[in-house]
Write a structure and sequence with these properties.
single chain; alpha+beta; four-stranded antiparallel beta sheet; 25% helix
Amino acid sequence: MITVELDIFSGNPNPVWTLTAQEEKEFIARVMAEPSLTLPPKSAGGLGYRGFTVSASKEARNTLEKSGLPSRFYVESKENADAEAALLNSIEAGKTVKDDVRQVAFDSIKATNQIWSEYWRTHTTSDSLALDIPSPAGFETSADGSKPNIPTDAPRPGDDTANLVCGPVVYTSDTNFSFWNDGFSIRRNNCYNYAANYKSNTFAQPGRVTGAQWTSLADCSTVPGSVSYGANSDGFTTACYPSGNQLYTCLVLWANNDFHWYRLAANSHWCHKPGQTAARNYDNSGNLISDPATCNRGPYTLVCSYRYFPNGWSVS
């Protein structure tokens, strides 16, 4: 049996399915003809589609291992287009993965890294780069709706993140992520764990620890069932904490599919941990992040809110 995991989400668990007997036979033949498919990935990947984790068991495992090949390996984003497309076109993938999610993966596979990065940069951040800071009244959107909604329910970082409204903020390193990227922790903690600076090893979900886990990813609203509501319940608030021992974070959404969080670290750099991949200080274009609202976020086009969270509080 061969189990396939599409590595595409940051906050949510990734979609997982199994190949049919015929698909398994064809995929094993492809791997044996092209052993380089099993080589370790060359990069950490970004927000959005990154590749596939393939796990073989039973007869499939025996077949691969007898040929000196691993039974668990990663098929890297945009390195093996035919093999990736075959996995996405498998029967159970069509039943398991939403059409719009599959389309993002297909589009990414078809494009080169440079073209795909430029596509997302021009489609998600070019307008926001020219945005003035919205008024405290709420949101700002261009007349034709092309500019992203950027709420101001907490202070924007601006040019001087050392002078936030709430005073002292806890800054962890913007270059050393060894706490998050060791072999045990990296797959068990996600962007929400990183935002809270709390390693639960449970792939934490907004609201789960307080019994208010989210049920909808439709938008940035704070109604019960939303990601924002769950985060509020856990302690992510737009209000200041008196102690000053707080973190400064930002929530963004891939509408109806996934959520992602950033956290302000040292040297005015925002850092993040996309799903099961490594924590880092750069965006999908490889640039240091000065503001999540203006960086390359891939398909996470909605900027929801900037929030404070008490350092040392738990999430689960």
